[in-house]
Amino acid sequence: MKKITVFYDGNCNLCNSEIKFYKKLDLKKTFKWVDINSKVDVLSNYNIDFEDSLMYLHAIDKNGDKKIGVDAFIIIWNEFKYFKILSSIVSITPFKKFSNIIYNFWARRRFKKIKKSCNV
What CA–CA distance (Å, rounded) separates 73 from 6? Predict the structure, then answer.
């Protein structure tokens, strides 16, 4: 079975906490979790820019397709029993558009803080 690969910022406390939560739920070992800070070279295999990976969550689905931001969360949530409902709701066009607006605002704001505090 091909795994879903999730690239996350292991230096971000919030991101790390969320990924730890998902790892606990991943009893079937459906995911390959990749901390982009320790495996920067892997990003180039998927044509993912390091700065983009810091700004937005990236995932590669079981078909090898790249998913970014809300779409990455949707494929993660879709693998967990109680999150499938959330995945279905967020996939509906008006909710997805709204979720993208909120997520993109948060991601850009977080990225500005990262750029100020470290050499990106």
Answer: 10
User: Residue 59 in contact with residue 4, Cβ under 8 Å?
Assistant: yes
Nearest to residue 29, comparing CAs of 3, 50, 6, 47? 3
Q: Give the whole-number percent of the chain exceeding pLDDT 90.
A: 82
pLDDT bracket for residue 116 (50, 70, 90): low
Please enumerate, as own/partner, the contacts of 47-56 that have beta carbons within 8 Å and a separation of 24 or more: 48/7, 50/120, 51/111, 51/120, 53/7, 53/9, 54/9, 54/111, 54/114, 54/120, 55/107, 55/108, 55/110, 55/111, 56/107
Amino acid identity at 59:
A
Residue 51 DSSP one-character state = H
Element (H, E) at 113: helix 93-117
Three-state DSSP class for 57? Answer: coil
pTM of the full predicted structure? 0.90
User: What's 83's DSSP letter?
Assistant: G
